[in-house]
């Protein structure tokens, strides 16, 4: 969505989302001391510094109010002499010399404009660069258009789409839409939806629910993430001080971590295609901007972290029906900070790469991005080195005749990928090795098997296109004969004998596909390992670290259709059930439990609790994953016997259903709706076994790179786990660190079960998810709810039904209710005394009763908006702002007194020095 820089904004009024920075210091305004007067310049309707004809300047007393200033301006201007001052408003506007707007704020009638002007960082007429922020006082008629009568947000020569978008972004009409859903005068599903729709139509894709951010994906890029916006949001300390933006959440999280020195995390959730990955990228960029403030160059860790994003997306993202850049894995990014706010190491943890996509994709979907980047962007020399062909010639890519993603330049993306890999630290040799493995994976799908008569068997197989096998062996540096045996023969050890038998055609194909999945999965985790090594330096462990800032970007809830949902979707939706339960805990359960614990008056708000659905998956002994594992470990088990077992033990569970028509599927009633899962392939995907013959062949490769993918030294892996544990321990509380260290060792041991067999995919995923939830529980969470605007990925299209469905199952209406009824500010009495001690009669010696008495007797605080608990005082944001304003005014008064004393002292010293000099001359 774009906006014409010359179009009128009509009669849109500015939303009062900025805090009223009142500077009303009690003083004697009748003083005639010339030091209390300053020159004030007021621009009429415009803030362009070139418009001198509409500017008026005069000396004004610093304790005179906004209302008095407006009256004086009207008296000075003959054409305005008969106008009523009540019809005019005074604005403080920050812009640049070329007329570009940063932000604006309407001054209250009781504020002191001169005092406001004194806080500006630079003199009004200083010589400076055009991009230097310049503040102005601007007089406007209440009913005038912002762009009429000479009002403009920059000259037509220099205005750009970004600047006009910024102007519209900052002028959010309160009469039609609300930046915070808690401000809605009437709260229903319809008013909530209408408000989001009005904001979306105006280009405002972000909306608050208290501290929670709603982000509606417009399927279009908006110019609201450039450095100008980053600078705007880098100074805010309260969400309400600027229009809703993801940068605001990043800034509040960052400064909260530095202030209280505790771990913080941002949990991004939403359906597939709702914009979670892009939100993660915006957060990382803004965190980098914040941590680099005051530094001429960013640290290598920050640059590596930003460069790692395109690498992980290329190898782990794909085009799906719901999303053109869908993450097929989950990731949790830990960024570690020192006391000065600089980054000191980071770590990326990966969850469940979708390996089945390597060998097959649903209709309308593609394989992983990197295949198409390489095949379309590689140079001629690279094509010959890696034996590359066209995408249409690979069996793993031509299943749906879907090769080109809309609006994607594969050649450019390939160059971008290589640049990112260079920035992360992958050597040219490592990159060529990676592309060789990718080529081998694709060629494995082209291996064809033919039946041949066997002496001891009715069905034996051989490879029909040995030239393809020869190329794969060259790429992987494996003997062709060894590779052929691994892909066609089974070795069975029976006591002292080794029995060699031929695969059937179906078994051989499964072995071939298993090898392709194993190689790609191993390559992906090798890439993650190398990224983490680049993000973690030895000296990072010796730094004085204060806290971790985590970002969770995990696969969104998926329902790709009753015919296609499989084991991967089951794991993905189980993870989303966990995140929804985590959200419910913090927004509803913990909140209401604290009110009851503190003994304040409160009426419980009902919400949909999905804890029982989570237990359906993980309970013992009859949870879904336990039953799947049990059947997977039986040698003669099948997918059908697994389904029978699920139906037998779970048929009475209210969250488990069987289809009305008999089919090999089951249904789970998730928080986001009922999803049907096809049982076919569940057992094989959960076991995910790699044939020993294939593993032995790969481990015999002459390439150290290929051997390292699947044959990592266990001792080295164990030591890396310990290193990561130490890294976590250095960044968390002692208890959290000890727990993380144990978990790292435990994670390694969990690779194998008690019987010595590899642990199932489901069990490993459960363990990793449990570790993630424990990590999140040790941090203060901030939530970003991503909403998909429509299912067709149409730019700037708001589908009411689609969005309403998402608002319902995520419990947004109940969330707004509890945020409106609850108390967003809660301060322990000891912290209140420490923070507001100069306002309390007894200062630091004040007691709990003194705090209660002070708040109760405060003239401006509404006692109905405050409650006193056993250990804390609870209040709304408005009451907190009143206290902060009072504190600010008292501090300013003390500062002015101190300034007068220092000025008097300096003047006296100057006088004494001068007097002594006169005496000496005499």
From TrEMBL:
Which cellular component terms (GO) are annotated to the entry? actin filament; cytoplasm; myosin complex
Which molecular function terms from Gene Ontology are attached?
actin filament binding; ATP binding; GTPase activator activity; microfilament motor activity
Segments for region (Actin-binding): 769-791
Which GO BP terms, alphabetically? intracellular signal transduction
Question: Cross-referenced Pfam families, in alphabetical order?
Answer: Myosin_head (PF00063), RA (PF00788)
The cross-references to InterPro entries, in alphabetical order and at most eight, read: Kinesin_motor_dom_sf, Myo9, Myosin_head_motor_dom-like, MYSc_Myo9, P-loop_NTPase, RA_dom, Ubiquitin-like_domsf
Record localization: Cytoplasm
For ATP, which residues are the binding ones? 270-277
Domain Ras-associating, chain residue ranges per copy: 65-144
Record domain Myosin motor: where = 176-889
**Which keywords has UniProt assigned to this entry?**
Actin-binding, ATP-binding, Coiled coil, Cytoplasm, Motor protein, Myosin, Nucleotide-binding, Repeat
> Gene3D superfamilies given for it?
1.10.10.820, 1.20.5.4820, 1.20.58.530, Kinesin motor domain, Myosin VI head, motor domain, U50 subdomain
User: Domain of life, per the record?
Assistant: Eukaryota
Q: Mainly resides where?
A: cytoplasm
Tell me the protein family, please. Answer: Belongs to the TRAFAC class myosin-kinesin ATPase superfamily. Myosin family.
Q: What is this protein called?
A: Myosin motor domain-containing protein
Specify the species.
Answer: Wuchereria bancrofti
Lineage of this protein's species? Eukaryota, Metazoa, Ecdysozoa, Nematoda, Chromadorea
């Amino acid at each position: 969505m774009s906006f014409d820089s010359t179009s009128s904004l009509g009669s849109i009024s500015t939303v009062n989302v900025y805090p009223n920075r009142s500077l009303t210091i009690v003083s004697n305004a009748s003083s005639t001391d010339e030091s209390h007067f300053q020159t004030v310049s007021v621009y009429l309707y415009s803030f362009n510094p070139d418009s001198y004809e509409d500017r008026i300047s005069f000396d004004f007393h610093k304790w005179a109010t906004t209302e008095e200033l407006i009256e004086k301006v009207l008296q000075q201007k003959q054409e305005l002499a008969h106008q009523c001052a009540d019809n005019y408003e005074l604005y403080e506007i920050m812009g640049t010399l070329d007329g570009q707007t940063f932000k604006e704020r309407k001054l209250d009638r009781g504020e002191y404009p001169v005092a406001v002007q004194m806080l500006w960082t630079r003199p009004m007429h200083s010589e400076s660069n055009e991009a230097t922020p310049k503040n102005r006082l601007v007089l406007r008629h209440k009913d005038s258009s912002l762009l009429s009568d000479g009002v403009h947000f920059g000259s037509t020569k220099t205005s750009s789409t970004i600047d006009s978008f910024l102007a519209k972004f900052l002028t959010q009409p309160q009469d039609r839409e609300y930046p915070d859903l808690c401000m809605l005068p009437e709260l229903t599903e319809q008013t909530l939806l209408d408000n989001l729709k009005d904001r979306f139509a105006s280009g405002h894709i972000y909306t608050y629910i208290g501290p929670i951010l709603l982000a509606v994906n417009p399927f279009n890029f908006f110019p609201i993430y450039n450095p100008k916006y980053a600078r705007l949001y880098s100074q805010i300390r309260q969400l309400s001080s600027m229009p809703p933006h993801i940068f605001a959440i990043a800034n509040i999280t960052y400064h909260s971590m530095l202030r209280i020195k505790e771990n913080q995390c941002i949990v991004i959730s939403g359906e597939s295609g709702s914009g979670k990955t892009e939100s993660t990228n915006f957060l990382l960029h803004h965190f980098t901007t914040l941590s680099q403030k005051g530094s001429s160059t960013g640290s290598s860790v920050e640059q590596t972290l930003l460069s790692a994003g395109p690498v992980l997306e290329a190898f782990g993202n794909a085009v799906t029906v719901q999303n053109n850049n869908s993450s097929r894995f989950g990731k949790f990014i830990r960024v570690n900070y020192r006391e000065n706010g600089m980054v000191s190491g980071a770590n990326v943890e990966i969850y469940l790469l979708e390996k089945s996509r390597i060998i097959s994709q649903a209709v309308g979907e593609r394989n992983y991005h990197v295949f198409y980047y390489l095949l379309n962007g590689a140079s001629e020399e690279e094509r010959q080195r890696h034996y590359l062909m066209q995408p249409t010639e690979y069996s793993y890519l031509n299943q749906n005749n879907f090769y080109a993603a809309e609006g994607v330049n594969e050649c450019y993306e390939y160059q971008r990928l290589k640049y990112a890999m260079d920035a992360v630290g992958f050597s040219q040799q490592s990159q060529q090795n990676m592309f060789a493995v990718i080529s081998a994976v694709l060629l494995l799908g082209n291996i064809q098997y033919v039946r041949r008569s066997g002496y001891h068997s009715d069905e034996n197989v051989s490879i029909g296109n040995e030239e393809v096998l020869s190329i794969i062996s060259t790429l992987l540096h494996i003997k062709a004969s060894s590779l052929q045996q691994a892909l066609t023969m089974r070795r069975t050890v029976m006591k002292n004998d080794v029995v060699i038998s031929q695969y059937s055609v179906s078994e051989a194909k499964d072995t071939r596909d298993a090898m392709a999945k194993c190689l790609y999965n191993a390559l992906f985790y090798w890439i993650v390992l190398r990224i983490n090594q680049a993000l973690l330096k030895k000296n990072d462990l010796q730094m004085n670290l204060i806290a971790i800032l985590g970002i969770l970007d995990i696969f969104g809830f998926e329902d790709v259709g009753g015919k296609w949902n499989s084991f991967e979707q089951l794991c993905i939706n189980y993870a989303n059930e966990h995140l929804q339960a985590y959200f419910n805990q913090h927004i509803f359960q913990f909140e209401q439990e604290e009110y009851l614990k503190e003994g304040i008056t409160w009426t419980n708000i009902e919400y949909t609790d999905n804890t029982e659905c989570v237990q359906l998956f993980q309970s013992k002994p009859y949870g879904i994953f336990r039953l799947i594992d049990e059947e997977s470990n039986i040698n003669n088990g099948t997918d059908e016997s697994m389904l029978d077992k699920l139906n037998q033990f779970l048929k009475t569970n209210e969250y488990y259903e069987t289809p009305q028509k008999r089919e090999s599927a089951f249904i789970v009633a998730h928080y986001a709706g009922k999803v049907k899962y096809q049982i076919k392939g569940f057992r094989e995907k959960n076991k995910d076994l790699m044939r020993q013959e294939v593993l032995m062949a790969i481990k015999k490769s002459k390439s150290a790179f290929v051997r390292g993918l699947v044959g990592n030294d266990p001792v080295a892996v164990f030591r890396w786990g310990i290193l990561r544990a130490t890294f976590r321990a250095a960044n968390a509380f002692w208890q959290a660190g000890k727990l993380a260290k144990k978990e790292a060792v435990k994670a390694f041991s969990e690779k194998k079960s008690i019987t010595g067999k590899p642990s199932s995919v489901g069990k490993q995923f459960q363990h990793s998810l449990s570790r993630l939830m424990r990590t999140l529980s040790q941090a203060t969470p901030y939530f970003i709810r991503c909403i998909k605007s429509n299912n067709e990925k149409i730019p700037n299209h708001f589908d009411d039904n689609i969005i309403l469905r998402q608002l319902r199952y995520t419990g947004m209406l109940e969330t707004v209710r509890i945020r409106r009824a609850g108390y967003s500010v809660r301060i322990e009495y000891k912290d209140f005394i420490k923070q507001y001690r100069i306002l309390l009669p007894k200062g630091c010696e004040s007691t709990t009763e003194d705090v209660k008495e002070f708040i109760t007797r405060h003239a401006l605080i509404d006692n109905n908006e405050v409650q006193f608990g056993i250990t804390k005082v609870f209040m709304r944001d408005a009451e907190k702002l009143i206290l902060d304003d009072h504190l600010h005014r008292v501090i300013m008064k003390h500062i002015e007194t101190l300034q007068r004393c220092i000025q008097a002292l300096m003047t006296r010293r100057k006088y004494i020095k001068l007097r002594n000099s006169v005496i000496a001359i005499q």
